[in-house]
């Protein structure tokens, strides 16, 4: 690099370690928006973008940055980056698989336990009613005290890092039976981890006591969990979504939860994000919600910071980083 890089950061820097690993770099941190407000005069200097949700990198932004060479996603997800536009402009896009999956998997298990043991509901009643909350739940133990996960079937849609690690925790730690729908994953992976293969998404839904969505999301595709899939689920089943809100037909999910077609849901992701103020999930006692925070932890933040710095630095130094999303940029060079 002949000059110190100027890096546009949408939202905020994930961890101060990024600065430590890129000494001399200029960081321009701006609020996340579809049309980021770049400081006057900075457009001609920016050579890299670090895009954290809900920040977006659109074609218009790319077109106004003549020195832009690399866009780094916040983690694995890429729905906030116009990859075709970046590729046309010769801009490398990188992401960071394998850094947040431990946090996401543990968060998913936490949502399962919160729902099955009704932890959030009990906590709220204890805070409002005092020790009378105990009698409220003991008197209605059959339907209000919650169940256990031991011996139940966990169905996983998507056997990537998150899906596999959640399977390990639930099978070995909680005594759950695990099945998965993940057509691209080899049979040897299923056998190695003691996971049953579901032939279709409908088969997975029909047999699951807990359904975990951990699949990749691609904009424009139909929801993985729609009306037909919800219709075959057990009325005692719960849904956990730590992947992307677009994987679920949300109006259909609302109906299923309201009518008792589904017992409950633990949701860390929504479509859109942030959800509107009148989002019905907020008022449902059988739903536990968190604001897309399954991935962040000190452990994952340190790994993502290092990966961001190393991959951005590699591109700016003329080297090919390990996790290029659009290799066509190099193939045509």
UniProtKB/TrEMBL annotation:
SUPFAM superfamilies: Formate/glycerate dehydrogenase catalytic domain-like, NAD(P)-binding Rossmann-fold domains. It comes from the Bacteria. This is Hydroxyacid dehydrogenase. Residues 46-326 form the D-isomer specific 2-hydroxyacid dehydrogenase catalytic domain. The keyword NAD applies. One of its GO terms (molecular function) is NAD binding. It comes from Pararhodobacter marinus. Belongs to the D-isomer specific 2-hydroxyacid dehydrogenase family. Keywords: NAD, Oxidoreductase. Residues 109-294 form the D-isomer specific 2-hydroxyacid dehydrogenase NAD-binding domain. InterPro entries: D-2-hydroxyacid_DH (IPR050857), D-isomer_2_OHA_DH_cat_dom (IPR006139), D-isomer_DH_CS (IPR029753), D-isomer_DH_NAD-bd (IPR006140), NAD(P)-bd_dom_sf (IPR036291). The keyword Transit peptide does not apply.
